[in-house]
Amino acid sequence: MIIKASSEHIDILTNVAADVLADLPNYAGVEFDREHTRRMLGIYLDLPGLGCFFEAVDGEVVGLFMGMIHPQWFTPTLEMSELMFWVRADYRATPLARQLMRAMETWAVPRGARKLLVAAASGYETARVEKFYNRMGYRTCALITCKEA
Fold it and tell me: Which residue ranges in the chain fall short of pLDDT 70?
């Protein structure tokens, strides 16, 4: 069952954060900071335009989608931008990713999001993720590049 996260879920989300970080190739070598994660979740989960959805099995998060509804600086039109989308490896062949996407859409559209932006910025099987998004009705419309500073 997909759950919309609130401040009562900070502990369970903090617990999965290290696993999420370790699973994302573009974040290899980034240090996990448990207290920073708790602090940021405390801020994020209180934001009115933030939606965080997850599924837990036996007390462990197996999938997570976090997105934010916001206007661009040049228009008041709202869009939803993905902040994090992750499904644990042993759940990637299940309907969970699709369910998390639908939960986000069901939350974002009634709140005024006219455009939904998701990305494959983690470095994990980018071509496969792009095909999944395309099957969900999303079209590829941007390029994301990365440079270490």
Answer: 123
